[in-house]
Amino acid sequence: MNVNYLFLLLLIFLSTFSQASTKIEVFTTSQSFSNILPVKQLITDNWRQSPKKNASDGFTQNEVGMSSYWQHLSLSVAQRYDYFVYSNPDTAKVFYLDKNDLALDTQEEYHIALKLFHQRSNGLRIGYKYEFENFSSEIRLGYWDLNVTRESNLTGTLASDLNGNISAIAQLDEFYTANNFLKRRNSNDWDADGTGITIDIHLRWQLSQYLSINADLKDIYNHFTVDESGFSAGNIDTDGTFINSVGGVAYLPVYRGKETTSKHQFKLPKQLSFIGFYHHSEQISYLARYKRQGEQNFYYLGFDIAHENSSTRISFDIENNAPEIQYKNDWLSVTFAIDSLKIEQAMLLNLGFNLYYRF
User: Fold this and answer.
1) pLDDT category, 78, cuts 50, 70, 90?
2) CB 88, CB 111: distance < 8 Å
3) How high is the pLDDT of residue 359?
């Protein structure tokens, strides 16, 4: 983020303290999922175990920031990091074998389909809340200064013969401001940053004494642009050229294509969450929740227990066998979910932490 923009954000944020702020919030959230291999191994690119047979995608979305609320207005400054991997079982298996220096199965032809997509940005959200008798809604408009982005697509086929010779042909196209498959360096040839717009909508609806619905629609509209992104597109193949190396025969991939700059426009996947509550009593409510993030759907059942000055919510992710616990009081909110007692084996990991100060 450039210095002038950061200074402007700080001035705007600090100016809110001169107003009649009712609440200040410091927050951090992290939501990660993978059906390829454990989240930590996927993110750190350290593939120590064989991927799942139904491997298709994984993601991690993280945000840290500070918010100020007064009357119907809100202002937030935040940094966010979004990373998505879209794959298939063949691609995941090839990556695992390559990472562990294992030979390809000579009886198989592997169909490669891989998409990597990530961005990191700093931004400002301005929100306004509408309140009616049994219904409230808040709309938040976000402006983001994009620091890093990459969108890489690799498709093709890969095979190995009995002598260990590998034949491959693949098509590559990717936009980037930093890392890329071809390890192309930026010699001031392309932009290293861009901008983005997001819209979030939060809804609360009390249908009756016993029923209510909450909806959180994050990035329901979003659009990011890098005017002159690094861009590569072309074919990668073995070209029949092999070189000797210790332990066997390898191949020398040849790339034919272009390396240039191009305007890059992209959208983030929407984050959707709908929760329905049945209020059994003043202390106990039962809930059902649907969440969509990336290309994954999540389904929860659970309950919420209200205490004198706090509440505890316990829900269960039905498909991924993962409990989620949330504790909240007047100054603190903590959320935690994991599908394995061993964090190294976790395929799902959600963390949330909020601190509040009220005037």
Assistant:
1) very high
2) yes
3) 75
**Residues 36, 52: Cα–Cα separation, whole Å:** 5
Whether residue 295 contacts residue 313, with contact meaning beta carbons closer than 8 Å, is answered with no
44-54 mean pLDDT: 86
3-class secondary structure, 47: coil
Supply angle C-alpha 42, 30, 270, rounded to 5: 90
User: How big is the chain, counted in residues?
Assistant: 359
Give the residue among 350, 304, 295, 283 at the shortest CA–CA distance from 28.
350
**Whether this model's pTM surpasses 0.85:** yes
d(CA 285, CA 318): 19
Token digits for 341?
Answer: 């007692």
With 90 as the cut, is the pLDDT of residue 301 above it? yes
Check residue 294 and give left, alpha or beta (phi > 0: left; psi -120 to 50: alpha). Answer: left
Three-state SS letters, 250-310: EECCEEEEEEEEEEEEECCCCEEEEEEEEECCCCEEEEEEEEEECCEEEEEEEEEEECCCE
Stretch 119-130: mean pLDDT, rounded? 94
